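go over whats below:
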Amino acid sequence: MKAIFFNLLAWIILPIMDGFAKYLSTDLPVLQITWARYFFTVFFTFPIMLFFFRKYLVWTDKPKLQFIRGLILLSANICFFYAISVISLAKALTLAFIAPLIVTAFSPIFLSEKVGYKRWSAVIIGFIGSLVVIRPGFVEINLASLAALGTGIMYGFYLIITRKLSTSDNPLLTLLLTGLVGAIIISTIVPFVWVKPTLNQWSMMAAIGIFACIGHLFLILSLKYADASKLAPFSYFEIITNIFIGYYFFSDFPDNWTFLGLFIIVFSGIYISRRQNLVKKIK
């Protein structure tokens, strides 16, 4: 019960970060907002790690893999923040939900996992769901929708690398290194696009880091009490908070096609998760 509680709290909190990012995107460059997300996350996370989890801060055995993981997540964040600056939070998140499908599709290659025809069928159905949202040939495909789809693809590879690292590195160390990699890289780019923020914008930029920090800490806490595979279906709860924020603050509400595509993608993802748990029990 604790695992579900902490996991749901995380998926309530993290979309608030996206809401601040979307609001700031009307006046600030996407790269600057991404910098704020990384800088303030590391700023708030590092002291917590140092004082409460110091014993876990042991240098990684796989620094190259940690760097690649951090780079992929940074790219995914840039794409997602760009996407929500143009399209609704709900539509962007729906397209990004293809990440679990990407994990399933590529796990035979990178994780040497066997994927049966049932899970392959769910992957194909999930991709059809993403096409329902984009509707190529019926509405004009914009760069923001492709960026949201790219977010899901990159996040899928990010999850694959996370699985590989879970056997060697502590999750807390991985969280900190991912933040540091992103913060260092984006800090070298942001001076070229910097726009001087107002005091109110500074506070919102800091809030992005605070909510990211709290949300990910709740995710880590939830994983103390249950396996990630068992908690995976609860991540779709994020869309509820997302729709609420989008409607209440930005007057965005998903159309029927987005809801249909969301249903197909979520159904596919939950089926894959349940099928994966069943296969593990049989083994």
Remarks:
- The radius of gyration is 18 Å.
- The mean pLDDT is 84.
